User: Fold this.
Amino acid sequence: MIGRPALIDSHCHLDAAEFDADRAAVAAAAIAAGVNLMVIPAVERANFAAVAAVCRDLSGCVPAFGIHPLFVGRAVEQDLDALRQALRANAAVAVGEIGLDFFVPDRDEARQIAFFAAQLKIAGEFRLPVLLHVRRAIDAVLKELRRLPVVGGIAHAFNGSRVQAEAFIELGFKLGFGGAMTHPRATRIRTLAATLPLSSIVLETDAPDIPPAWLHGGRNAPGELPKIAETLAKLRGISMAELAAATSANARAVLPRLSIG
Assistant:
């Protein structure tokens, strides 16, 4: 991998059905491209085992466990106990993907908030950072974080204002930037990516979702991260080596268990 700076994909759903046909090849291609680590977050109890298996079987993959806000409608109280068990049984780097999503219609905001709060408490119990889903709900997420502080984490797929970005940073969070930043018309995200402190940024793909511009809506994969990183390096006017070193250090700082072993 000479000439390929090491990168960390801080959010990648490699357990998703879209990768069933070629999961091992996708992971191997990412590593060959210089993506040394991929954080694989669970989204509900039903896929805890799948996430654990992916991270056990594939090099470079590490797990996080949580109940995503879009899945709380079918979650039950016992799922929180299952979450604790998954965190105990596996070398989880974070509690996630958790948070709030006020974009979807017919949502139950109170139920989302209740499960989010419960999982923030679990993160506190385990002294783990969190991977946050914050779609159209940033202020509500920040409110819960101030009420139930955790040791930090990542605001995944950040698409808020600079004031909101600074609020997350003050609470010890990094901000995840990925494929959305590669679209020329995404001017707000690109401006934030270019001007926020480099120390506050981590890279992600959210594969198979949020494809970069060059995939034209096709399946995203962790192997796309180097080109995503090149976009960020150009936006900031720095070298790929500097960008890779900084974002990888940021990921390890906010997810300390990445550095264990």
